[in-house]
Amino acid sequence: MNTSAAQRVAILIPALNEELAIRRVVESALAVLPDVIVIDDGSTDRTPQILADLPVILIRHASPKGKGESLRDGFREALRRGFDAVVAMDGDGQHDAADIPRMLAAARKYPDSLVIGARIRTRENQPNARRRANAVADWGISWGCGIPVADTQSGQRYYPRKVMQLVDLPAQGFVFEAAILIAAVRELGFGVVSIPIETRYSSEFRLSHFRPVRDITLITLYTIARVFHYRDIFASYRRSHSKPPLVFDPVVSVIHEPA
């Protein structure tokens, strides 16, 4: 895919014990953009060896530090190398790099927004417990943001440079993704636009590192604290739940937009 010289975008892939899928994921990412940053979060399987012959930027943690720290180190590397944005995607195969051009199209149309690959197509494929946990997270994190957001738990996201510069937010693990979303909207005035992607779950994927009860509890506690921090408790609830999230499908839009 061609990108302009003024807009350098890298793909960022956190990975922990992803030997089942990581090569396929990274090769598909390289077919879309030439710059791929992989953060190996202390894998004890063959993940780093599988990537050894691929032209990626590989950063390794000596032991697992969690997804938040992996994203932080990826952001720092992208900022150091002068990238204007990154597209994050998980290393387990649930995200498709073929969706990235649509995310970049959405970013061009909404330049002051984060872009989320929202798993709203074939949602019935999502395990029931995970679907319920995600619904709770969407309800709460939208309140924290003060705007409605579709699929706040999706790890496939476009982060502009200004948002990456929030790298030192004090949040760990999966809470970091909620923290950066809330801070981008509240502190930087960014919007959030979601593009619809397929919900991909399969027996060939390794078990998720996300633990719905534990992680949603931590995310909820963090979000409640941020709601009270910004003080406009009732106004932010009304703003976040009075209308649907902004969802943009570039393929549909291109077909129906007037010439």
Describe this protein's structure.
The protein has 10 helices and 7 strands. With 259 residues, it is of the alpha/beta class. A 7-stranded mixed sheet has the order 3-2-1-4-6-5-7, with helices on both faces. Helix 5 runs parallel beside helix 7, helix 5 packs across helix 9 (233-241) and helix 7 runs parallel beside helix 8 (212-230). The longest helix is centred in the last third of the chain and has 19 residues, at 212-230. It is globular and about 55 Å long.
Question: Helix and strand layout, with pairings?
Answer:
Elements: E1 9-15, H1 22-30, E2 36-40, H2 47-50, E3 57-60, H3 67-80, E4 85-88, H4 100-109, E5 113-121, H5 128-145, E6 157-160, H6 161-164, H7 175-188, E7 191-198, H8 212-230, H9 233-241, H10 250-256
Parallel strand pairs: 1-2, 1-4, 2-3, 5-7
Antiparallel strand pairs: 4-6, 5-6
Helix pairs in contact: 5-7, 5-8, 5-9, 7-8
**Structural class label:** alpha/beta
Shape, principal axes of CA atoms: globular
- Biggest sheet record: 7 strands, mixed
Helix coverage percent of residues? 40-55%
- Could you tell me the strand content as a percent range? 15-25%
Topology, number of strands:
7
Rg, Cα atoms, Å: 17 Å
**Main β-sheet, spatial strand arrangement:** 3-2-1-4-6-5-7
Low-confidence stretches: 1-5, 252-259
